[in-house]
Amino acid sequence: MVEGSMTQGAGRGPEVERTATLRDFRVPAYVHEPVPHTAAVIPPAPVPPASAAHSEPPAEPHPGSVPPEDIPGHRADEYTPTERDLPVIRRSDTLQLIPSPAAGPAEATTAGQPAPGPLYVVGDVHGYLDELLDALHEQGIVDANGEWSAGNTRLWFLGDFTDRGPDGIGVIDLVMRLSAEAAAAGGYCKALLGNHELLLLGAKRYADTPVNSSAGTATFQAAWLLNGGQKADMERLRDHHLQWMSRLAAMEEVDGHLLVHSDTTAYLEFGASIEEVNDTVRETLTRNDPDEVWDLFRKFTKRFAFRDGGVDAARELLDAYGGTRIVHGHSPIPYLTGEAGSEDGASGSGRSPIDGPHIYADGLAVAMDGGVTMAGTLLVRRLPVA
What we know:
The protein is of the alpha/beta class.
């Protein structure tokens, strides 16, 4: 049996509790319904000329928590979702991010067709709706009312919308609404499937049904609570949220960027092409077998494949699915770089917050999880990053 302890959530939203541990998708009509949020009104960001250059601040180390591989007897390649995962700690202040140029109209055409708009990616959100709205606004993607304002911009979320933070369902509702608004403006907003979407789907569908686990008998309900599941999200979860999550793509290649949620090579087990991987994942969720879904979830929790000499692993994934660089979320940058401190953050005092993506594995991998659940930054950045 998995047991948990209680810690306090963080963010500018209400205090929350946690227990220790599509390819393109069609947007249904209900996403046009207004989605309330509690973000403070922000003055509209100026829209620079289309030719304005975009610059990124360098990444800096940030405190966090002891990585799973530092637990005695633990190996990174044997990580299981039933182990205690990243904690949520109290945020003492509001992070200030540097604004980036908003997207302008397409500058060129090809054979009479408008060139595609700029490409942006969003790291793990984990229920921090206000921080997400702030980050999107600072990049000129939404206006002060949280509505799409980026024209033909292409926006990809890398997964993990819920758990740990105060408003996971609000995040999902926002992403669904923005996908409709972006399409109407000539752009798009799409999302990948993260391990926490699989966890929430499993907790809703199977609850306390026992599943086979390498750590012994487990249940989705226990694993969800252990990994920061919020009861308010479960209470607000509806069928259309479940349908939307179950149709998300597991991976995509865009402009030479291989977009995935997890920094793992486990995707190779699901197919020899992006289409096969996405079809396999969706078919697994459609069959509705708890053991199969648990195995899918367990493999999506693996991490650190491209770290510490993982160049060959990165090349293997790129050779299989295309692209020249992997862009992923899942592993917070403080964990990935080894800059994480103790769970209470005491050893990390005085360190600067993460302020940009982490490029590693000889430039073949880009990490986008800034560690918002660790008082870090919710990263929204334009690709390519240098």
